[in-house]
Amino acid sequence: MRRQKVKLYVLLALVLMLLGIAAFAPHLVPCDPYEQNLSQALQAPGRGHLLGTDRYGRDMLSRVIMGSQTTIFSALLLVAVITVTGTSVGLFCGWRGGKLDSFIMRISDIFLAFPGMVFAIAVAGVLGGGILNAVIALACISWPKFARLARSQVLMIKDAPFVAAARLSGSGGTKIVFSHILPNILGPVLVTATLDIGTMMMEIAGLSFLGLGAMPPIAEWGSMMSSGRSMLQTSPWVILAPGCAIFVTVMLFNLLGDTVRDVMDPRQSVQHVDRR
Amino acid sequence: MKKYIAKRLLQLIPILLGITLLSFALMHSASGDAVDILEANRGGVLSEEAKAKAREELGLDKPFLEQYAVWMKQVLTGDMGKSYVSGKPVFSTFVHKLPATIALTIASVLVTILLSVPLGVLAAVKQNRFLDYLIRFLSFIGNSLPNFFVSLLLIYFFALKLGWFPVMGNAQGWKSIILPTLTLAIAMASKYTRQVRASVLEELNKEYVTGARARGVREGRILYFSVLKSSMLTIVTLLALSIGSLLGGTAIVESIFMWDGVGKMAVDAITMRDYPVIQAYVIWMAVIYVAVNLITDILYHYLDPRIRLGQEGAA
């Protein structure tokens, strides 16, 4: 357990560093990520440009750093939105029960009946390009997962003695839900949310890659890779730099998710199965 | 069993209605002006009068639910309208492109099984030894790679540098399906290797395994005849459930490899704002997804003697 905690703190530090880079991206870039310089186009990585330049002569390193802002913050925004809406809906449904609950759950069934990306592609297609629209599209399709999770957790503890005690001591519904039930279901919700960050980041980048997310010239890893596709043979760094950035970032968030799960919910951990 | 199937089929009705209503509403809100899009695509300029007439012809002046009912009737007879771009019937285009997507999906599932089952079992048997760590590490990497990055890497190394496979298209027979299949299979295999490992480990820790070992049954026999047999049920179910999401996940890979399936069709349709095509794609993918999941569920219930016999005993 101690080793897990140390691992968690190390990963948290790394993620915070990444967030720091993303937040202060405009001050960290060595060159202007949007400044075109056609005489410098498609330079291989080297002294002047550590990661080379793209076809408009823009510095890849600066664009990757700038892109971290778009990609990471939109993924975090998306996960925050679906966690909060999904959990609120789930809390409400689980606590209230009755007809409204079954109605909302049927609606969530309908959303769950679509293969994720298919619906996201359609929504993004209808709304048009733009990173915010990609976030909206993915949020539409992803909230039911959290609603289901929160609801099942509420149903599990709804009849626990401590809830009955709170009720007997005169607490109202709202107070019970927010100060007794919510803190008790937060663990699994947060674990799922952390594990989702990496996936969501890949899906946002995927939509941008298809031209349904961030629009050029905005620096975003998925759309940077998409616009570099035709130069794969001659200048692979145009693809490799943002690709590796996504890979490392997603891996870091996935590692964090796994570790958070192991620390908060040892029952589900891989290590637990091993130790038996 | 029959009762269970009937119940599941009944539950399907509101879901299917919901899917169609939602897709219809989505496209309705977007293509509010189908006539304008038609006009823009054909490059003509229509008078307001002609536009109003065209709207009347398309039924766009009627209330929403009425339009939905009319449209639904057409869908049930296999008529999903005509493409704004090509003018061809959408449904037949979809049916024409579906086999390519299905071929890609089946190939990916097969490769996934070939990769994840042996690797997962190996990792479970060699638990906490070097091989286990290596397999877990590789599956972790595979899980963190977006499929568009994987496909570009595969194209770079195997098509551009080594020249083993074509870069795109499905013209070159079996050779052209390999890279897109690998792309999809790498992501899936990374996920399922973990699942196979976990379920085999769980099974290996059960008492009957200890019992068999105590009776001197050889380890190989226990593994192949008892453990694999009982953990396969879970694994097969998970894989079957993944077929549905795979059908949807192929869009990016199809458009990178220029694979002429429904995913590429949808992506192309979005750039052209060809709403009837997008609509057909969304609805049919959802229907296929729901159908595959339903069949898997029923099969699972049928194959698991605990559930099948338990139910019949109760009934």
From TrEMBL, chain A:
It comes from the Bacteria. The chain crosses the membrane at residues 72-95, 116-144, 197-216, 237-256. The keyword Flavoprotein does not apply. GO terms for cellular component: plasma membrane. GO terms for biological process: transmembrane transport. It is a multi-pass membrane protein. Residues 68-257 form the ABC transmembrane type-1 domain. It is found in: Cell membrane. The keyword Nucleotide-binding does not apply. Belongs to the binding-protein-dependent transport system permease family. PANTHER family: OLIGOPEPTIDE TRANSPORT SYSTEM PERMEASE PROTEIN APPC, PEPTIDE ABC TRANSPORTER PERMEASE PROTEIN. This is Peptide/nickel transport system permease protein. It comes from Lactonifactor longoviformis DSM 17459. The lineage of its organism: Bacteria, Bacillati, Bacillota, Clostridia, Eubacteriales.
UniProtKB/TrEMBL annotation, chain B:
GO terms for cellular component: plasma membrane. Keywords: Cell membrane, Ion transport, Membrane, Nickel, Nickel transport, Transmembrane, Transmembrane helix, Transport. The keyword Methyltransferase does not apply. Its main location: membrane. The keyword Transmembrane helix applies. Residues 98-296 form the ABC transmembrane type-1 domain. It is a multi-pass membrane protein. It is found in: Cell membrane. Belongs to the binding-protein-dependent transport system permease family. OppBC subfamily. This is Nickel import system permease protein NikB. It comes from Lactonifactor longoviformis DSM 17459.
